[in-house]
Amino acid sequence: MPNNHHIFADGDLRRSEDTLRIDRLDGEPKYLAIENLDSLYLHGQVTFNTRALGLLNEHGVPVHIFGWNDYYRGSYLPKRSHVSGTTVVEQVRTYDDKNRRLGIATDMIAASIHNMRANLRYYNTRGHEFTAVLDELSALKDRAQTESSVESLRGVEALARKAYYRCFDVILRDPFELTRREYNPPSNEANALLSFLNAMTYTTCVSAIRKTALDPTVGFMHEPGERRFTLSLDVADIFKPILADRVMFRLVNRQQLSFDDFESELDGCLLTEAGRATVLDEYEQTLDETVEHPRLSRHVSYKTLVQTDVYSLKKHVLTGEDYHPTERWW
């Protein structure tokens, strides 16, 4: 089964026959079998030419690029294996239909809040007291069902995340503390870790959407804009509690990370290369974990959960079949 591959070293990415060759500045060349790649992540200063991009394009492998200090910079998306003008037209029609767009956005926010509550319920039974916040999130989820605009829905989602993030300092082992959510740049170690994991969740959603005929720039919760995949932002909000937050709690509370894995600079706090490697190893293992799916009646990986979520959205856009955003049941 194809997997994600992360390149940290600086160097050149080239095509060698039907294989990718990485000429690293700090070591021997490394070869990657293209058929074993699902997505390629470039974290170092890597140059590449059109022949390398051509090979990636032929095999449908997206490249996610992280620039200086590992800020996510963008993605190179190859030609799609699934191209459908009908799907794009129906997606835009759905966006333009106020009621249909609001329905999808409501389902997304409800699922996101459900997944926040699922995380807190887990820790509420393990020596913490989150009953008041659980009730607050439950009320906000109910409120989301009554909102009449996407703008007011976004306000409900912001309130839910603010309440949810208040619990992080209780869940996280000292000396990690979120204090408050800050990014661009992240102000401390917990914010740096969460920002990096959120970026990884976003790119996972970008890759999943690329495998469908949906247009990643036309979202339903987030407004379409320049230079961003708003549909990926939509889907990522559903999966941040399931992927980013749970991985964060695990890494910190199992002491797989320490403050030595971070570095503070004038413009904020960031993970070191060793820290990023630890985080990515845990994140990729999580993507490969499986759970039994109640509707599919089989075990599926977390990566597949993201894909089935996107396929469900595509079906809804095309046929009106109920959309089933992922709500954690396990």
Automatic annotation (TrEMBL):
Coiled coil: none
GO biological process: defense response to virus; maintenance of CRISPR repeat elements
Listed cofactors: Mg(2+); Mn(2+)
InterPro entries linked: CRISPR-assoc_Cas1 (IPR002729), CRISPR-assoc_Cas1_C (IPR042206), CRISPR-assoc_Cas1_HMARI/TNEAP (IPR019858), CRISPR-assoc_Cas1_N (IPR042211)
Molecular functions per Gene Ontology: DNA binding; DNA endonuclease activity; hydrolase activity; metal ion binding
Keyword list, A-Z: Antiviral defense, DNA-binding, Endonuclease, Hydrolase, Magnesium, Manganese, Metal-binding, Nuclease
Positions of Mn(2+) binding: 157, 222, 237
Record keyword Flavoprotein present: no
UniProt EC number: 3.1.-.-
Gene3D superfamilies: CRISPR-associated endonuclease Cas1, C-terminal domain (1.20.120.920), CRISPR-associated endonuclease Cas1, N-terminal domain (3.100.10.20)
Superkingdom of the organism of origin: Archaea
Keyword Chloroplast applies: no
Family matches, as PANTHER family: CRISPR-ASSOCIATED ENDONUCLEASE CAS1
Subunit structure as annotated in this protein's UniProt entry: Homodimer, forms a heterotetramer with a Cas2 homodimer.
HAMAP family: Cas1 (MF_01470)
Family statement: Belongs to the CRISPR-associated endonuclease Cas1 family.
Function: CRISPR (clustered regularly interspaced short palindromic repeat), is an adaptive immune system that provides protection against mobile genetic elements (viruses, transposable elements and conjugative plasmids). CRISPR clusters contain spacers, sequences complementary to antecedent mobile elements, and target invading nucleic acids. CRISPR clusters are transcribed and processed into CRISPR RNA (crRNA). Acts as a dsDNA endonuclease. Involved in the integration of spacer DNA into the CRISPR cassette.
Protein name: CRISPR-associated endonuclease Cas1
